[in-house]
TrEMBL record, chains A, B:
Keywords, ordered alphabetically: DNA-binding
Protein name: TetR family transcriptional regulator
Matching PANTHER family: HTH-TYPE TRANSCRIPTIONAL REGULATOR RUTR, HTH-TYPE TRANSCRIPTIONAL REPRESSOR BDCR
Start-end of DNA-binding region: 24-43
Length: 174, 174
DNA sequence: GCAAATGTAAAACGTTCGTTTTACATTTGT
DNA sequence: ACAAATGTAAAACGAACGTTTTACATTTGC
C-alpha cells in the first residue's frame, strides 16, 4: 500500500507530463487510486504535494550524480533521460509556472539547484585534481543545456554536451 | 493606439513573468487596458493569444541573432538577457505548461526551435568556413544551457558559455 | 449625416478549480 | 471486543476560470 509513496509517484508523473497548473486534483486522485479526503490527509495541499514531489525527485536525481568524473556526470544524465524522458527540468518548470512566489515550491527548487551547483563543482574538482569554478560553471551550463535542448533535439544533445565537456576538461588539464 | 500590439506586448509580459496557465483573462484585460470584448475580438482565444505572443517573440529574438560569428551569437544573448531578464525559454515553458497538445502553441514552438537550430548551424558554418553539425549541436547546447542556468546562476552563465564556445571553435579550427 | 465599425462596462454563461464535509465501511492496536 | 485510526464515495463549498452577451458610447468612411 503506502499511500504517500503511491501519491507522490503519481503526482510526479502527472506534473511532469502535463504541468503543475494543468493537472487537476481529480486527475491526481484517479491516478493515485485514492479518495480526495485521503489525498488531502497525506498531502495537505496541491502546492505542498508539488513541494514533496520536488524534494523526492531531488533525492532520486542527486543520488545518480554521485560520481567522480565529468564523463560519468554526463553518463548519469544519459541514463536519466533514457529512464525519465526529455521534458526539461521539472524544478525550473515548477518555479516558472508558479512565478517563483509559492513558498514551499520556490524553496525546494532553490535547494535543489544549490545542491546541483555544489555537486558539479565537486565532480570537476575531483576529476581535475583542483578547484576550477569557471570550468565548473561551463560544465553546469552544458548539463543544463543538454537537459533542455533534448526536449526538441533528442537525447543526442547529452552526448554532444559530454564531448564538449571532455574537450574543456582536457584543455584545463594542460 | 493599435490595440493588437498593446495586447500582445502586455500578454507576453504577463505570460513570461507568471506563466501561461496562472495568468487569467482579467489580468490581461487590466494590463492591456481594454475590455474583454475587445480582447476576444483581437485575440480569438487565450491559446491563440499565446501563439501570437510566441510568433512575435520569435521574430524579435531571431532578428537579434542575425550575426556572423559564434562570439556575436553569445553577445546577442547577453544583450537579450540584459533587456528581457533571465526567466528561461518562453517557448519551452509554453510547451511544457500545455503538455505539448495545444495546436497553435505547439506549432509556434516547433517552428521557433527549428529556425533557431538552423540559425546556429549557419552561424557556426560562417564562422568556421565550413559546415560542422556536431560543433553546431554543442553551441546550441551551450546557448540553451546559458539561457536556463541564468535563471538561478545569473547572467554570468552567458559569458561562461561564450568562453566555452570559443574554445570549442578554436579547437575545431586547428 | 448616417450607417458601420469599434470601443467600454458589466453581467451572465456553464465549467472547473482546490478544498472541505457528510456518511459510512474497514482495519488495527491493546 | 471495542475504540481509534484510516480508508472510500460523493456531495457541496465558494471562488475563479475562459468566454459570450447585453446595453450603450464614440469614432470613422462615404
Amino acid at each position: 500500500m503506502d499511500m504517500t509513496r503511491k501519491l507522490t509517484a503519481a503526482a510526479e508523473r502527472l506534473f511532469d507530463r502535463h504541468g503543475y497548473m494543468a493537472t487537476g486534483m481529480d486527475r491526481l486522485t484517479d491516478a493515485a487510486g485514492m479518495s480526495s479526503r485521503t489525498l488531502y490527509k497525506h498531502a495537505g495541499s496541491k502546492a505542498a504535494l508539488m513541494a514533496r514531489v520536488l524534494t523526492e525527485r531531488d533525492r532520486r536525481f542527486m543520488a545518480r550524480l554521485e560520481v567522480r568524473t565529468v564523463d560519468a556526470l554526463f553518463a548519469a544524465l544519459e541514463d536519466w533521460v533514457r529512464v525519465e524522458g526529455c521534458r526539461g527540468c521539472l524544478f525550473l518548470r515548477s518555479r516558472a509556472e508558479t512565478g517563483g512566489d509559492t513558498p514551499g515550491i520556490a524553496e525546494a527548487v532553490a535547494a535543489h539547484k544549490e545542491a546541483f551547483h555544489r555537486r558539479v563543482g565537486e565532480v570537476v574538482a575531483t576529476d581535475l585534481g583542483r578547484e576550477d569554478p569557471a570550468l565548473a560553471e561551463q560544465v553546469l551550463v552544458l548539463f543544463e543545456g543538454a537537459t533542455h535542448a533534448a526536449v526538441y533535439r533528442g537525447a543526442q544533445t547529452v552526448s554532444a554536451a559530454k564531448a564538449a565537456a571532455a574537450i574543456l576538461l582536457e584543455r584545463a588539464r594542460s
